[in-house]
Amino acid sequence: MDLEELGPRLERAADRVGPETNRTVQQQARLVRAMIRFNASGRPGPNIITGDYFDSWRTEPFGVPDGGGAIVGTDRPQGRRLEFGFMNRYDSLGRFYRQPPFPHVEPAVNELSDEYADAFKDACDRIFGGA
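^ that's the sequence the OP posted. Answer follows.
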């Protein structure tokens, strides 16, 4: 490749940055949601009783300049208590709890952290490899 080809190749790569980044972010958000739900399917995470908490985990994509983002979360009030526990405390109604933590979010994020880096390396290869 000579210098005259560099400009057009960079222009073509720049056009792919946003879509590839967004695709990668959404894929990783779906993976972490699946892993959280897996971890919330029994010990050492919380047990499934009704499936309401398990089904409450959502991914919400949002746009950002030159890419995309995603929020992975639940709107259920028990989420924080299940993840972090509620030991030797009274709730707002005066009930005493000794609920140990059942981590399911942090282990999912930690387990997939190496895959995040690899996914974005692959996205860079797709962005610049096809230039």
